[in-house]
UniProtKB/TrEMBL annotation:
The protein, known as: Probable magnesium transporter
Chief localisation class: membrane
Pfam families linked: Mg_trans_NIPA
Biased composition (Polar residues): 322-339
Subunit structure: Homodimer.
GN (gene name): LOC100821372
Annotated source species: Brachypodium distachyon (Purple false brome)
Length: 361
């Protein structure tokens, strides 16, 4: 009887390891991160439709410097949806480490791909569905092996981590690369190379996430009874967050308006997540609290997510390639669409420089 009880206890322990292995803070962060992915994934599509509608009415696209989308209600609906998602994301960083929260953004790609298929007529290939499954598997792997949140008692402690030589060096390198991209690459290659706009968003985003996490910790400690708003470091982090978010919003709008959603989403996710994990490892030393097996497993989960996102991207290109090649075949019902319908199908293809100043959709 004792042996049977011991076996039952061992089985129960093994079965409940996932629950006991995640702290309550990590669970809260997980739930908030999942909610964030839902809202942000939907916001990509709503904003895209708003950008298209604004461009059709004004004739000036955001990708070439137009700001008519600011007067388009649909774009603001998408923006509000994104803000809700970002607030949930903001709260998630206060409870869980970035290495857990950030990779879960892959779920927003799945939502974005499905909605793009339904609302924007962007085809989702069968291998795109496989890509979605890979994203889910990779996200689950990371969730199960994420490190516990580092216990920080004040914003001054976060400031100390942010001003260590290693992270200061990282910030300096990021700012130098962003300056080169904005002043040299954007005027020359912004309309033809998706990596330019997304590079700016991702680099700036890695710094903004660290500041968001610092600000989230400050508010969390404040709500616990120790006021952190009296410290200048809290407001310094707030200023960085505002500046970074404005920059990200501007260049993300340009990327969404110029390139296909199915291209922007996975590449932006990949770069943003990779740089954020790197910044978090440097600043918060997440891997110091893990053994090599956990680190390798997390990296395998991350690579699985990357495989899924790029599979989504590649299958989208395949679908578009087949669609474009139909123009060289004998006329069919699908190739005899009206000009308006044809433009709706082709608007998301990465533009060449000669196409970047075309008229309204």
């Amino acid at each position: 009887m004792d042996e049977a009880s011991a076996a039952d206890a061992a089985a129960s322990s093994a079965g409940g390891r996932w629950y006991t292995g995640m702290s309550s803070d990590n669970v809260k962060g997980l739930i908030l991160a999942l909610s964030s992915s839902l809202f942000i994934g939907a916001s990509f599509i709503i904003k895209k439709k708003g950008l298209k509608k604004a461009a059709s009415s004004s004739g000036v696209r955001a990708g070439v410097g137009g700001y008519s989308y600011l007067f388009e209600p649909l774009w603001w609906v998408g923006m509000i949806t994104m803000v809700v998602g970002e607030v949930a994301n903001f709260a998630a960083y206060a409870f869980a480490p970035a290495i857990l929260v950030t990779p879960l953004g892959a779920l927003s790609i799945i939502i974005s791909a499905v909605l793009a298929h339904v609302m924007l007529r962007e085809k989702l290939h069968i291998f795109g569905i496989l890509g979605c499954v890979l994203c889910v598997v990779g996200s689950t792997t990371i969730v199960l092996h994420a490190p516990p949140e580092r216990q920080i008692e004040s914003v001054t402690e976060v400031w100390g981590l942010a001003t260590e030589p290693a992270f200061v060096c990282y910030v300096a390198i990021v700012l130098a690369i962003v300056a080169v991209l904005v002043y040299k690459s954007v005027p020359l290659y912004g309309q033809t190379h998706v990596m330019v706009y997304i590079g700016v968003c991702s680099l700036v985003g890695s710094i903004s996430v660290m500041s968001v996490k610092a600000l989230g910790i400050a508010l969390k400690v404040t709500f616990s009874g120790t006021n952190q708003l009296i410290y200048p470091q809290t407001w310094a982090f707030t200023t960085v967050v505002i500046a970074c978010v404005i920059t990200q919003m501007n260049y993300l709008n340009k990327a969404l308006d110029t390139f296909n959603t199915a291209v922007v989403s996975p590449i932006y996710y990949t770069m943003f997540t990779s740089l954020t994990i790197l910044a978090s490892v440097i600043m918060f030393k997440d891997w110091d609290r893990q053994n090599p097996t956990q680190i390798v497993t997390e990296m395998c989960g991350f690579v699985t997510i990357l495989s899924g996102t790029f599979l989504l991207h590649k299958t989208k290109d395949m679908a578009e390639g087949l669609s474009n090649s139909s123009s060289f075949r004998l006329p069919t019902s699908s190739s005899m669409r009206s000009p308006k319908q044809t433009d709706e199908y082709s608007e998301g293809i990465p533009l060449r420089s000669s196409e970047s100043f075309r008229g309204p959709y």
